[in-house]
């Protein structure tokens, strides 16, 4: 029997990309995904990255998101 093969796959902006699959109307809208209890940013679409730092606290950047037209999603681990 052959030895098992393991792989680690890391996708850029994966959670944000998953959200867009089910919301194609947001294809050209910058989005961020928030951690459990909406504490901080855990994923950013490429077009949101210039405006939002990874790990930024949601309550501190809420106004910035609105100003830049960035949509925030609560994390949905069942989807990812």
TrEMBL record:
Gene3D superfamilies per record: 3.30.70.270, 3.40.1170.60
Pfam families membership: IMS
Domain (UmuC) ranges: 6-80
A GO biological process held by the record: DNA repair
InterPro entries reported in the protein's UniProt record: DNA/RNA_pol_sf, Rev_trsase/Diguanyl_cyclase, UmuC
Family, similarity comment: Belongs to the DNA polymerase type-Y family.
Protein name stated in the entry: UmuC domain-containing protein
Organism from which the protein derives: Stutzerimonas chloritidismutans AW-1
